[in-house]
Fold this sequence. Notes:
- It is a single chain.
- The protein has one domain.
- The chain is 66% helix and 1% strand.
- It has helices spanning 12-19, 30-44, 52-73, 83-109, 115-139, 146-170, 180-197, 213-219, 221-238, 257-273, 278-281, 283-307, 319-329, 336-366, 375-391, and strands at residues 25-27, 173-175.
- The two termini are 38 Å apart.
- By secondary structure, it is mainly α.
Amino acid sequence: MQFCKEKKILSAAQLKRLSEHKYSCLSDSILDSLLQPWWCWLVSKTPLWLAPNLITILGLIVNIVTTLILVWYSPDARQDPPRWACALCALGVFVYQSLDAIDGKQARRTNSQSPLGELFDHGCDSLSTVFIALGACIAVKLGEYPTWMFFQCICAMTLFYCAHWQAYVTGTLKMGRIDVTEAQYSIIAIHLISAILGPSFWSTQMPFLAAPWSLLISSMTYPAQIYLVTKFLVTFRIRGCGKNGSTVAGTSILSPVIPFSMVVVPAFVIFQKSESNVYENHPVLYLIAFGMVAAKVTNRLVVAHMTKSEMEYFDWSLLGPAMLFLNQYFNNALPEYFVLWLCAIWTCFELFRYCGKICLEICDHLDIELFRISSARASAGSERGAASERNGTAARRPPARLARRQHSHA
């Protein structure tokens, strides 16, 4: 008799709806069409035994490791990291973006498409969003303007969440002319400038303006952010695809604002109320801690979309921000830096526990492996994949708008 059997995250009904889920995405990205030849060549050189999810996770690891090297040299985003570290981070983003673009193509080559691939891909993207934004802030030394840095990183997490909020409402993930790929290559360019001219370049004053280059490059993101927010707000005008204009799960189209506001609002309040300036002194650690909460909430939204389920408001990862909030309420009974570390450790643990458990439950339901391709499926797809690659049809987009980079394994 099992007394301590752990409760599953997904119910049988949710798993059934997940297995019936069909990936839907529209993209009009400028760079995606230009980069297709590179991605097609790259996937053609990828071994058929390499699982799509393994490609995704390898790219994410490279991205995180190269960003953490920057963090090591500039934990407050104010110090000059070595030029080689900036160049390495540019390479890390490029590797991540390229591998993220071919995992779906590899899934079709090897006949290993599954809903798990879409979930795994978006889960890695939610995590990479945090580190890519942090890496860019460190490269331009935006820690010298902590409020701007906070705003930029929170905006990156929010825009990623809004994209999946729109998918939860309409059933389709929509990408514009200027979107994720363009943002990633812009950040690669920022890292390369830091590597060539040195990170201190961004602290120099612009001619005729009493402001540094770091604020200019930060301000240049606003038009793109406004454009993406405007596109997102159109969602509420056309309403949802569910019954009576609801979400795919039949819930209110405004409901996803509640769980994410429980991340953003505490992050801002704790930042403003801190007597020891815990954020200004440790901005990178602070944003990683709250970034992990944002990533988990985003993953829960993706799961809710794919399983057509209502999104729960409470999340155990919110206990991390609650530690900081309660510590402030009791006049910093513990050193805030110590509590911040506890918060970061807890939120990272909760994110990886949740993602790992979800993946194992889906693998068990679909009878597949997370990082391996069964020999039968691989052999069945290899001939078809090889023939279509020769004809240039396996990874080439049709003229109409299609899924962004075709990177999901759905």
